[in-house]
Write a structure and sequence with these properties.
globular, 26% strand, 7-stranded mixed β-sheet, binds flavin-adenine dinucleotide, alpha/beta
Length: 467
């Protein structure tokens, strides 16, 4: 039999690709990773999860300074040095990108720099400034991720029409910013720049913001944004978008049909992400697509033998970093002949790092009812949680959606301080198939934010103490 140099080639170094390559190295597979960008880490590390959370952290600190007097601290004339804020963010990204490089080296993964295209039959062509070479492996993982979708007729530019890439490179805080799309990405940038002092208009075509969340969560975030004086327009349309040379103008049609001319310094388009499945040679394989996303089985295998797909390119799973990583683990385990537990779509946490923050897992109340469960809901407000009051963030609640028959936990939805951290308990509980009763008996330390989660489990049976 002909000897193939690699057991595995991974295309893409995002959280899906780099984690898969490291795990493959740990399993002793001879592995190569191809990345077209000079730096490793993909969308998540370079222009997604990490830089946005760095800015969100600074926005939190800045708000503390602005409202320091509420806590008895006189802090005269605090100033925001945005170039320094950006430097800090860039430093965090660089540190972790180098970390990925080091981890890949330690796992003995060979790195190829260049643009990869599948050639069929286990071959991958890598094109770079220094030439073209073909690498061959028994298995290939496609982890090419996604990029921002643009509105028809518009093109991103660094000065006016921005995506997540350009907005992260701004060197000053814009005075007026319109954001089209109020999913996690749009809502997070709104929460960042509003708190830095930008006049933000968040425009969403659907009837509610963060539309994948439980309806009560969307309502609570919208209520809080409005209370913070962040302008939210749901059921609205932005049309006739044009650049003037020094600003962007658009026609905003609000929910009640009223039209308004809006002029802003910058426009952020956050209308979803397009999978990178074009021009990567899939036509040379039997890989099947569903509206541009790659179809896979429960082991992440595509229709082409030996070709797997993970992360944002995959059809049917949410575009999240931890999903990409998990799918990578499943694909590599399958390649290495190790036990691979397929992803359970109902146990994928989703987090939005706004203020207040969101963490959710499992079915929403509406989904649980539509699926015929005898739904019982427990809800506990952070207003009844002493730690939340101490932190000065007592907005929001924890909502548990359970099945009355067996006390099964169907979903947990949190909006409030550190909601994105608190969801961890609910994910572990659901993964361990704990019942509501078991979680009611679980001792929660006092005073903590996660006591609110314990109280919400008690609230399913009307037994919460502090509300
Ligand atoms: C602003 C923003 C904030 C986000 N925040 C969060 C968050 O807080 N939590 C969360 O879970 N998710 C978040 N996401 C989503 C998350 O970034 C993605 O789900 C995740 O990065 C997907 O990982 P991936 O490995 O599939 O692909 P990616 O991270 O997109 O990486 C793909 C890599 O493949 C490379 N590549 C593509 N084509 C080729 C080719 N032909 N040859 C060689 N290399 C190629 C790319 O250069 C890239 O490095 C956010 C996204 C954005 C835009």
């Amino acid at each position: 039999m002909r000897k193939v140099p690699y057991d595995l080639i991974v295309i893409g170094s995002g959280p899906g690709g780099y984690s898969a390559a490291i795990r493959a190295g740990q399993y002793g597979l001879k592995t190569a990773l191809v990345e077209k960008q000079p730096r490793l880490g993909g969308t998540c590390l370079l222009v997604g999860c990490i830089p946005t959370k760095s800015l969100l952290q600074t926005a939190d600190v800045w708000q503390r300074f602005v409202h320091a007097a509420d806590e008895g601290i006189q802090c005269d004339n605090p100033r925001l040095d945005y170039p320094k804020v950006k430097d800090r963010k860039d430093g965090i990204v660089t540190k972790h990108s180098k970390g990925v490089e080091m981890l890949l080296k330690r796992a003995k993964v060979d790195r190829f720099s260049g643009y990869a295209t599948l050639q069929g039959g286990g071959k991958v062509e890598v094109k770079s400034d220094s030439g073209v070479q073909t690498v061959e492996a028994k298995n290939i993982i496609v982890a090419t991720g996604s990029e921002a979708r643009m509105l028809p007729g518009l093109e991103a530019d660094p000065a006016f029409i921005l995506t997540n890439v350009e907005i992260l490179n701004l060197t000053e805080v814009p005075k007026r910013l319109a954001i089209i799309g109020a999913g996690a990405v749009g809502a997070e940038f709104a929460s960042i720049f509003h708190r830095f002092g930008t006049q933000v208009t968040l425009i969403e075509m659907l009837p509610r913001i963060v539309p994948v969340e439980d309806e009560d969560i969307s309502k609570e975030l919208e209520r809080n944004f409005r209370k913070q004086k962040l302008r939210v327009e749901t059921g609205a349309r932005a049309e006739n978008i044009r650049k003037t040379g020094h600003s962007v103008q658009l026609t905003l049609t609000t929910r009640d049909g009223k039209q308004e001319e809006l002029e802003v310094e910058k426009l952020l388009v956050a209308v979803g992400r397009k999978p990178n499945t074009e021009k990567i040679g899939l036509e040379n394989t039997k890989v099947e697509l569903d509206r541009g996303f790659i179809k896979v089985d429960q082991n992440q295998q595509t229709a082409e033998p030996g070709v797997y797909a993970i992360g944002d390119v995959v059809a049917g799973t949410p575009q999240l970093a931890h999903v990409a990583t998990r799918e990578g683990m499943i694909a590599v385990a399958h390649i290495a002949g190790k036990p691979a537990i397929p992803i359970n779509k109902n146990r994928i946490p989703g987090c939005t790092y706004t203020e207040p923050g969101i963490g959710s897992v499992g079915l929403t109340e509406a989904q649980a009812r539509a699926q015929g469960y005898q739904v019982k809901v427990g809800r506990f407000p952070f207003a009844g949680n002493s730690r939340a009051t101490i932190l000065g963030h007592h907005e929001g609640f924890v909502k548990v959606v359970a099945d009355e028959r067996y006390g099964e936990i169907l979903g947990v939805h949190i909006i409030g301080p550190e909601g994105f951290e608190l969801i961890g308990e609910a994910v572990a509980a659901m993964e361990a198939e704990a019942t509501v009763e078991l979680m009611m008996q679980t001792i929660h330390a006092h005073p903590t934010l996660y006591e609110a989660v314990g109280e919400a489990f008690n609230a399913v049976y009307g037994l919460s103490i502090n509300a």
